[in-house]
Amino acid sequence: MELSPEQAAIRETVREFAVEEIRPTAREADETETFPEKVWDGLADLELTAMTVPEEYGGLDVDGMTYAVANE
Fold it and tell me: Would you say the pTM of this structure is higher than 0.85?
């Protein structure tokens, strides 16, 4: 199955964010059982925290496949 251009763009955005922002904090987050606020804020800035929220409420309202691609 081939990804749509939107899905491919989301996948690349998430991949870059994970490498640049999540990876450097992952060990400490695991050890302290915390979720860094900076990471959450970054996800929110990319609108990834509102992927399943309907557009009428300010979300992206993506389909299940797009959501799965982002979480992969």
Answer: no
